[in-house]
């Protein structure tokens, strides 16, 4: 149980990234009329950017 | 008699430590012991306004751009009523209105994603160990100046920040490791609500009604409640670990923290009475060599 809780606590940045950051980027781009580069959909772009940011926060312990 | 006080003699210089203490306590008691109904109305009124923003925005009655600043003010206003409850100011243990004290704390602290008991235990620990580099849970807020403080406050909210470990250590010292689990549950619950809204097409509403207001408010709260009143945060001891100071935003704009020294000396005085208590107590504080900037 304790190990599972530690794993969840450790994974919070990744959980946050995919649960919230990705749809925020996706819907934010749509709201201001931005299109994604390389012919990607805004959701795919958000998954790449939000996911990468989440991985960086997960490994470095910092979002900024 | 002193100009500000009906209790103090004109000349305090001849008084002993015990006599000064007695006079200080006499003034403090004069301003304590009453239920601060303003904090109760503030707590639930503020929560009601914030909760009402959601249906107003979802139904299109209020634009998101207008709701965002209101939500930010709501988030900034959450902490102080819980702070009164943390210090048992609304009602002490064993009194008739004790339930109200606990209700104010528990019913509103979730908005800023903290269990009330975590706020209470860590804050009381801050009072016990103010400016102690090893034990003060707020020590990481110490900074060179206001802009550095703002950056530092944001940096200390990052996942790997020392402040998180300091809070966990305080709970561990208090034997309340269960609250570490509860804190995690609050964080997960917050992400779950934000995520559920976001993946159902309300990401911007979640962003501008909760997530961003929360982060702006926490920065503001920590700046005015932790950094400014203790700056530079190097001294310990009852009469030197905090100060009075003049804020560019005034006493209301700095959430009553210009008179934080009175709160640390007598944490049972309600927030709205600390200015009056300060002015009456000021000659004693001067005699004690306190850091007074106002």
Could you describe the 3D structure shown?
The complex is a heterodimer of chains A (64) and B (294). Helix content of chain A is 77%, strand content 0%. Chain A has 3 helices and no strands. By secondary structure, chain B is mostly helical. Chain B has helices at 17-30, 37-58, 64-76, 79-86, 98-109, 116-128, 146-155, 162-173, 178-230, 250-253, 260-265, 274-287, and strands at residues 243-244, 291-292. Chain B is globular. A two-stranded parallel sheet of chain B has the order 1-2. The mean pLDDT of chain B is 96. The longest helix of chain B is centred in the last third of the chain and has 53 residues, at 178-230. The A-B interface holds A 5, 8-9, 12-13, 15-16, 19-20, 23-24, 26-28, 31, 57-58, 60-64 and B 154-155, 158-161, 181, 184, 187-188, 191-192, 194-195, 198-199, 201, 203-204, 206-207, 211.
- Beta-strand fraction estimate of chain A: under 5%
Q: Report strand order across the widest sheet of chain B.
A: 1-2
Number of strands of chain A: 0
Spatial extent as radius of gyration of chain B: 20 Å
For the largest interface, the chains and their residue counts are: A-B, 22 and 22 residues
**Number of beta-strand segments of chain B:** 2
**Principal-axis shape of chain A:** elongated
How many individual helices of chain B?
12
Cα-atom radius of gyration of chain A: 14 Å
* Count of DSSP H/I helices of chain A: 3
Shape of chain B: globular
Oligomer: heterodimer
Roughly what percent helix of chain B? 55-70%
The succession of helices and strands of chain B, N to C, reads HHHHHHHHHEHHHE
Mean pLDDT of chain B: 96
């Amino acid at each position: 149980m304790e190990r599972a809780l530690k794993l969840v606590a450790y994974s919070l940045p990744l959980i946050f990234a995919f649960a919230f950051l990705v749809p925020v980027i996706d819907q934010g781009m749509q709201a201001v009329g931005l299109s994604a580069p390389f012919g990607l959909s805004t959701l795919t772009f958000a998954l790449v950017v939000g996911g990468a940011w989440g991985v960086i926060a997960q490994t470095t312990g910092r979002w900024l | 008699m002193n100009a500000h006080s009906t209790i103090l003699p004109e000349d305090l210089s001849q008084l002993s430590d015990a006599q000064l203490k007695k006079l200080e306590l006499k003034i403090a008691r004069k301003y304590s012991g009453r239920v601060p109904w303003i904090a109760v109305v503030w707590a639930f009124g503020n929560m009601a306004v914030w909760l009402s923003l959601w249906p107003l925005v979802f139904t299109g009655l209020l634009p998101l751009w207008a709701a965002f600043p209101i939500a930010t003010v709501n988030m900034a206003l959450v902490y102080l009523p819980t702070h009164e409850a943390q210090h048992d100011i609304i009602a002490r243990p064993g009194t008739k209105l004790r339930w109200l004290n606990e209700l104010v704390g528990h019913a509103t602290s979730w908005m800023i994603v903290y269990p009330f008991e975590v706020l209470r235990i860590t804050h009381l620990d801050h009072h016990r160990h103010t400016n102690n580099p090893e034990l003060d849970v707020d020590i990481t807020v110490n900074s060179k100046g206001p802009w550095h403080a703002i950056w530092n406050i944001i940096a200390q909210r990052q996942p790997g920040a020392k402040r998180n470990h300091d809070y966990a250590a305080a709970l561990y010292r208090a034997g309340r490791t269960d609250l570490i689990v509860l804190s995690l549950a609050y964080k997960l619950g917050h992400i779950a609500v934000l995520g559920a809204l976001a993946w159902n097409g309300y990401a911007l509403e979640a962003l501008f009604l909760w997530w961003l207001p929360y982060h702006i408010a926490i920065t503001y709260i920590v700046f005015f409640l932790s950094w400014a009143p203790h700056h530079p945060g190097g001294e310990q001891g009852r009469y030197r670990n905090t100060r009075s100071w003049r804020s560019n935003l005034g006493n209301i704009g700095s959430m009553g923290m210009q008179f934080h020294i009175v709160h640390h000396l007598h944490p049972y005085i309600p927030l709205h009475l600390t200015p009056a208590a300060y002015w009456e107590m000021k000659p004693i504080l001067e005699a004690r060599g306190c850091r007074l900037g106002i």
